[in-house]
Specification:
45% of the residues lie in helices and 17% in strands. It has 288 residues and is α+β, with helices and mostly antiparallel strands. Helix 1 crosses helix 3. The longest helix has 22 residues.
């Protein structure tokens, strides 16, 4: 840490603690917490700590110094420096990176825009009949770009409209109208910026996987593979019971069709004989 002799001892100690965490943690992540209320942040930190994922909040300068020094022992840490911006915290963890990312996504919840924020994605306003009464609100909506009109005494938005494009600034005017329409375009919660697992660096885009959808896909793939294996008679511990069951049913059906008497086929053969006798009796008109 340059000029360490002129730096306050508590800062030197903070960098040393951060450096130790970076070096020894099998999985290290940088987390953004912009916009998270202090009470909610404390709760999230407590819950993550209880699950073995402690979060350390530090200034960006201390984090950058710690990453720089820790990189001399663990070079894979160096790319993390690019994700230190705005309000950032350091997380130490163990386990599966994708499970951790899913855990973080569950901390996020919709929140209204106040104006001045950058839209993280296109803000789509669907066509709808609003709860507004006809009046000046129609002009306000139209002025802000909403396709508003009055139909049958009600204020309606006549078609779907992307009111703010991703990356554009949400104006105060649009933000207020979105809130009145009960549209919450932003999210508040912990944001996983980057994650280093061993020597592998993961970006948020790579980690944003719908685990439930993937499990469903694996389930469907398993069913299709099992059906194919049964169709071609491929033996595995899973297919053998099913193949034997199918072979038994087919053998029984063949024996019954050929009128081959066995302990298993006799009930079916007698039943078939009774049905055929009844049919002959019906055709000949013989008394029962």
């Amino acid at each position: 840490m340059p000029g360490r002799e002129s730096v306050r001892p508590e800062k030197v100690e903070s960098v040393a603690r951060l450096q130790a965490t970076l070096v020894r943690s099998p999985m290290t992540a940088l987390v953004g917490f912009r916009g998270v209320p202090a009470s909610a942040l404390q709760r999230m930190r407590r819950e993550l700590r209880e699950r073995g994922h402690p979060i350390t909040v530090a200034t960006n300068s201390l984090l950058l110094h710690a990453i720089e020094e820790a990189s001399t022992e663990r070079p894979a840490l160096k790319p993390l420096a690019a994700s230190v911006a705005d309000q950032t915290a350091l997380l130490a963890a163990e386990g599966n990176p994708f499970s951790l990312a899913a855990e973080f996504s569950r901390t996020r919840s919709p929140t209204p825009a106040r104006g001045g924020e950058i839209a993280p994605k296109d803000i789509l306003v669907p066509a709808q009949t609003t709860s507004f009464k006809p009046g000046p609100i129609v002009g306000e909506l139209q002025h802000a770009g909403f396709p508003a009109a009055i139909e049958k005494g009600k204020v309606v938005l006549k078609k779907d409209v992307t009111i703010v494009k991703a990356g554009a600034v949400i104006s105060r005017e649009v933000a207020g109208l979105l809130t009145r329409l009960d549209i919450l375009p932003l999210e508040v919660g912990l944001e996983l910026r980057a994650l280093l697992d061993g020597e592998t660096l993961y970006t948020p885009e790579v980690l944003s996987v719908d685990l439930d959808a993937r499990r469903a896909e694996l389930g469907r793939a398993h069913q299709k593979a099992l059906a194919l294996a049964l169709e071609i008679g491929y033996t595995t511990p899973e297919t053998i019971p099913l193949l034997l069951s199918r072979a038994h049913r087919r053998a029984l059906a063949l024996a019954v069709a050929a009128a081959y008497p066995t302990k298993a086929t006799l009930p079916a053969l007698f039943a078939r004989a009774a049905r055929e006798a009844a049919a002959v009796q019906h055709l000949t008109g013989a008394p029962s």
